What does this fold into?
Amino acid sequence: MPFAAITYDIKAGYEKEIGEIFGGFRRVGSPVVKSEGEETTRILATAVFIRDATMVRVIEYEGDLQDVARFMASQPGVQEVERKLAPYLTRPRDTGTPEGFIATFNRSLLTCLTQISARDAS
It folds into this structure.
């Protein structure tokens, strides 16, 4: 399964406050992403890492990454986290609209250099 990682430029020293924001995250009801009524993608897992002025959200998924971005853009819990993170960002993120969220998501993507999983071994 592929992984994606997106970065956030944050103010250092606010790990506790940011941890509390993610501690109250409202999960989506289903990991299934649909396009035109058909399942196209699944979000398998997410994790958030933080150190100093960098935060990274890692997403494990199967399917299409742009479907993941569109799905996340429409989720109330994701929108709530983005709003709550705003005071802790050193660089604002335009995530108030689906189009802005998707553009920000794509700009924030890290390039995956390698990915190895025991699940891929035969």
User: Anything to note?
Assistant: The first helix runs from residue 15 to 23. The first strand starts at residue 3 and ends at 9. The chain has four helices and four strands.
